[in-house]
């Protein structure tokens, strides 16, 4: 019997099946004793860059549109194409890893992401940029579940909490820094550099992964068992999942822009996407080797954690959209100032998350941390519902800090407890499914908040207009003061300018009320899912036990 090789590339004293050297990597005597934290740091950096790219291009769209001679509406395909490609790859990444190996799959994804990032920066037309963004999304989509699966296999039992803390920092901080970093790079250099910065980091990650990363013994044993056998690929499941998720992502991203179901395109996407997802669920549940193992949702903890993740990611990402837009459109902040106000939330989260990982390693009940984190995040989001047009920067900073800390407090135990009762050999499939749930939760949240915000503005404007009447003495007095303040010597131009100022005031107040409505809605959403925590079962951690089937 040979000594098994762990994912990190360091020795594992448990016996394992005979493993071919070509599959296991270099001979045992040549494998250095590497700390698993080195591997965790390398793979997490790759995830950080991938998540960063989901938001860093948002603020650069006007520059991209102008430079590539396209409209702002057309340039939004730069974002949509990336999300669609992400959605297609994420659910099948676990299956692909089991076929070609996690290490080769991770390196292939990182290489594709890095090369396509360079090509995005060199694009000379919008069509080229969208095509290369699809390639970048295909590469980046496989990184999130791969990294989480690596950490699940790399750190057993109580050690998994601190590892998930590192992963959580990347997942939470990247979307916060993305708009700020993207705006700064675009203003001071060029929009092309938001893609070029991925290249050196991607090359370093590939070099370290090639030298240090190894597949876990159970994945090697699976490939040995399949050697010489005909690989049965679930083409039908692959086609249904890809078509369903692609249609869903385009529908969510373009729905408000196309006025939802008044558009034939949206109706077509809804029908095709809905039917594809329904048939995919039926097909995958019955298939012996499914592309996406939905049977994992039969495990109570995993299913409940997926539901909680959908609600929380929807709330967090909706606020990621609302706050910068509110500060720049209504409060008159520059992108840089808005970023400086929001960025401290990432610093507080970075400080808190390792503490949460340490608490989990000391045996603190993960359910307590999840419930407390949800309550704090929900309360902070409801706190934002008290904002107004005269709000001070500190009244935005502290609710955001509290919300991010609440999310950071519960993401680590949520990721830890979600995999605890699943079989070890299903870690790749479970990570892919969990990443898909998070991705769809954020997409649903952004689509919902975009639609609800627009319609809420229209509703509040209609209500406020009723109070602006030509027969109201207050309205006439205010218009007179505005005409005087306008300073126009023309007796006809002054009242016209006053009417315009009055209309802009109504619009700003209606917009502010609409933002408040969304903060209240998503805050209540987080609070509503708190009772689900009581349905989770607590794993009995044993610090002396090896990594058993409970992942």
Can you put this structure into words, describing what you see?
This protein has 551 residues and is mainly alpha-helical. Among the domains are: 1-230, MFS general substrate transporter like domains (Growth Hormone, Chain: A, Up-down Bundle); 233-288; 459-513, no CATH class. 71% of the residues lie in helices and 1% in strands. The protein has helices spanning 21-24, 36-52, 61-67, 72-75, 77-89, 93-100, 102-122, 126-141, 143-154, 160-188, 193-196, 198-212, 217-226, 235-254, 264-286, 300-329, 335-342, 344-361, 366-384, 394-418, 427-465, 473-486, 493-528, and strands at residues 3-5, 11-15. A two-stranded antiparallel ribbon has the order 1-2. A hairpin with a 5-residue loop joins β1 (3-5) and β2. The protein is globular.
CATH topology of the domain at 1-230: Growth Hormone, Chain: A
How many E-type strands? 2
Largest sheet: 2 strands, antiparallel
What is the radius of gyration?
25 Å
**What best-fitting shape do the alpha-carbon axes yield?**
globular
Determine the structural class based on helices, strands and strand pairing.
mainly alpha
Using the coordinates above, name the CATH class of the domain at 1-230: Mainly Alpha
Low-confidence spans: 1-32, 541-551
Number of helices: 23
Q: Record the strand order, biggest sheet.
A: 1-2
**What's the architecture of the domain at 1-230 in CATH terms?**
Up-down Bundle
Instruction: Give the averaged pLDDT, no decimals.
Output: 76
Our estimate of the beta-strand percent is: under 5%
Portion of residues within helices: over 70%
């Amino acid at each position: 019997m040979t000594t098994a090789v762990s994912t990190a590339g360091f020795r594992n004293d448990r016996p394992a099946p005979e493993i071919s050297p070509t599959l296991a990597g270099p001979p045992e005597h040549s494998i250095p004793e590497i700390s698993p934290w080195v591997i965790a740091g390398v793979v997490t950096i790759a995830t950080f860059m991938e998540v960063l790219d989901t938001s860093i291009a948002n603020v650069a769209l006007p520059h991209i549109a102008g430079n590539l001679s396209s409209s702002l509406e057309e340039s939004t395909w730069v974002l949509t194409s990336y999300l669609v490609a992400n959605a297609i790859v994420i659910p099948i990444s676990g299956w692909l890893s089991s076929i070609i190996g996690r290490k080769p799959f991770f390196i292939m994804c990182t290489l594709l992401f890095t090369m396509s990032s360079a090509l995005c920066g060199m694009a000379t037309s919008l069509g080229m940029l969208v095509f290369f963004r699809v390639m970048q999304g295909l590469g980046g989509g496989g990184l999130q579940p791969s990294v989480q699966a690596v950490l699940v296999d790399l750190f057993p039992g109580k050690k998994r909490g601190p590892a998930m803390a590192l992963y959580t920092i990347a997942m939470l901080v990247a979307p916060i820094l993305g708009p700020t970093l993207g705006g700064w790079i675009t203003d001071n250099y060029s929009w092309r550099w938001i893609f070029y910065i991925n290249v050196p980091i991607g090359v370093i990650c590939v070099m370290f992964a090639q030298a240090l990363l190894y597949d876990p013994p159970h994945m090697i044993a699976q490939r040995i068992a399949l050697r010489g056998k005909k690989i049965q690929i679930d083409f039908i499941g692959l086609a249904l999942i890809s078509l369903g998720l692609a249609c869903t992502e385009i529908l969510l991203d373009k729905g408000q822009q196309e006025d939802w179901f008044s558009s034939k395109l949206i109706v077509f996407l809804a029908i095709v996407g809905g039917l594809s997802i329904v048939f995919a669920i039926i097909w995958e549940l019955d298939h012996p080797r499914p592309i996406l193992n939905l049977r994992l949702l039969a495990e109570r903890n995993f299913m409940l954690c997926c539901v909680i993740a959908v609600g929380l990611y929807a709330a967090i990402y909706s606020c990621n959209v609302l706050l910068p837009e509110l500060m720049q459109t209504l409060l008159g902040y520059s992108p840089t100032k808005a970023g400086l106000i929001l960025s401290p939330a990432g610093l507080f989260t970075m400080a808190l998350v390792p503490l949460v990982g340490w608490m989990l390693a000391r045996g603190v009940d993960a359910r307590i941390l999840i419930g407390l984190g949800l309550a704090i995040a929900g309360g902070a989001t409801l706190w934002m519902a008290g904002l107004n047009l005269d709000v001070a920067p500190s009244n935005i900073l502290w609710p955001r800090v509290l919300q991010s800390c609440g999310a950071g407090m519960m993401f680590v135990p949520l990721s830890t407890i979600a995999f605890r009762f699943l079989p070890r050999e299903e870690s790749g499939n479970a990570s892919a499914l969990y990443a898909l749930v998070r991705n769809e939760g954020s997409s649903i949240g952004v689509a919902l908040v975009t639609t609800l915000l627009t319609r809420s503005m229209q509703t509040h404007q209609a209500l406020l207009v009723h109070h602006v009447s030509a027969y109201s003495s207050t309205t006439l007095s205010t218009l007179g003061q505005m005409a005087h303040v306008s300073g126009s010597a023309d007796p006809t131009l002054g009242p016209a300018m006053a009417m315009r100022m009055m209309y802009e005031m109504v619009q700003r107040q209606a917009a502010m009320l609409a933002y408040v409505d969304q903060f209240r809605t998503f805050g209540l959403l987080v609070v509503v899912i708190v009772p689900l925590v009581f349905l989770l079962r607590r794993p009995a951690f044993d610090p002396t036990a090896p990594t058993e089937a409970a992942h």
